[in-house]
Amino acid sequence: MASLIKNLTDILNEEYKYYKELLEISNQKTEIVIQNKVNDLEPITNKEQRLASNLLKLEKTREELVSDIAIVLNIDKKQLNMTSLIELLKTAEDDQNKLKQLKKNINEILLQLKEKNNQNKMLIEQSIEYIDFTVNALQSTKFNAKNKGYQSCGNEVEGYGENRFFDAKQ
After folding, report:
1. What is the pTM of this model?
2. CB under 8 Å to 44, separation ≥6 — which residues?
3. What pLDDT does residue 166 have?
4. Which of 5, 18, 1 is nearest to 99 (CA)?
5. In percent, how much of the chain has pLDDT > 90?
6. Phi, psi of 158 (to 5 degrees)
7. How do the domains of the chain map onto residue ranges?
8. Percent helix / strand / coil, the chain, rounded to 5
């Protein structure tokens, strides 16, 4: 059992390191989006995907370890989570403290990562909205130049609305 717990803490430490790297990448992405350096986004996204792939492998290994621990403890693996495992390790205070700290660290970094990802999502959506607005504004100028208007006496006037930059619908 002790070796299973050690392996679990090792994997959780490794996951924590990967999450810290993902948070650093998310911070870099924020700066790239703010500075509008779109070309710099691709290499960072590729690195992010590699880290995510590594995290998935660790997650699978961690789930296998939790299954093994559940078998040793003779409980259903669906009922075994970090909190219940910490409670079951009352006799192994050192392991219990390590798992408590890892749980706290991972929860904190995941919260920070979630907040940063939401911020990046919002920044990207704002950039897309701005680009759409600009494209629509330029297109409305192009289409308005082809419009015809009428003078007060009823005669047609070519190029009516050529100076209009924004469409009234916007």
Report:
1. 0.73
2. 25, 28, 29, 32
3. 52
4. 5
5. 47
6. -70, 145
7. 2-118
8. 75, 5, 20
